[in-house]
Amino acid sequence: MRSFITLLASTVVAKNAVPSLWDGTCFYPKPDIGFELESYLGRWYQIAGTNAPYTANCKCVFAEYKLNDNGTVYVNNNCQVGNKPVNIRGTATPANPEYGASGVFRVQFPVEIPPDCLGPNYIVQDYTGDFSLVLSNNFTTLFILSRKQHPDE
C-alpha cells in the first residue's frame, strides 16, 4: 500500500516536480532508472488515469504487454462497456536512448494519428513491480497501473 501512496503522491506533484527532458519542442518525464522490460510484461490494470478515446465509458480497463521477436512490445488494451468487451491493439517501440535508457516507448495504435512530439509518448516514470506510474510527453496523460485489479485498501 505504501508504494501506491508514493505513486499517488508523485501524481499530485508530477507537473511541478518530475525531472524532465526538453528536446526543443516537447517535455518528456525522465523514466524510472530501475525499469526492466522483462518484468514489466504481462497484465496491468488501470486503477486511475486520464480518459482516453478508446476507454470512454469503460470499466475494468487493463493492458496486456508481450515482447515481439523484433524487440517491440505488443500492446493489447482492453475494457468493458456494458456487456461488450472493447480492445485496441498496437505496438510500443523503444524510444531513442537520448530519452532514457529504458522505460520509454513510442506507442502507436492503428486508429490514432501519430503524436506531434518526435520522442516517446509512453514513459514509465515510476515502477515498483506491483505499481507503475506512466506519463506521456508534455504531461498530457497519466495512468496509474497495478498488477492487481483491486489493490489492497
Number of domain modules: 1
Using the 3D structure, state the CATH architecture: Beta Barrel
Order of helices and strands: HEEHEEEEEEEE
Low-confidence stretches: 4-15
CATH class category label: Mainly Beta
Q: Share of helix among residues?
A: 10-25%
Strand order of the largest sheet: 3-4-5-6-7-8-9-10
Number of contiguous helices: 2
| CATH-level-4 superfamily name | Calycin beta-barrel core domain
Strand residues, percent: 35-45%
Class by helix and strand content?
Answer: mainly beta
The total count of strands amounts to 10
Report what the structure shows:
Belongs to the calycin superfamily. Lipocalin family. One of its GO terms (cellular component) is cytoplasm. It is a single chain. The protein has 153 residues and is mainly beta. The chain has an eight-stranded antiparallel β-barrel. Strands 1-2 form a two-stranded antiparallel sheet. It starts with a helix and ends in a 7-residue tail after the last strand. About 8% of the residues have low confidence.
Pick out its properties:
153 residues, mainly beta, eight-stranded antiparallel barrel, 2 helices, 13% helix, globular, Calycin, Lipocln_cytosolic_FA-bd_dom, Lipocalin_ApoD, signal, Calycin-like protein
Which SSEs are present, and which pair or pack?
Layout: H1 2-17, E1 20-22, E2 27-29, H2 37-40, E3 42-49, E4 59-67, E5 73-81, E6 84-94, E7 104-108, E8 122-127, E9 131-135, E10 142-146
Antiparallel strand pairs: 1-2, 3-4, 3-10, 4-5, 5-6, 6-7, 7-8, 8-9, 9-10
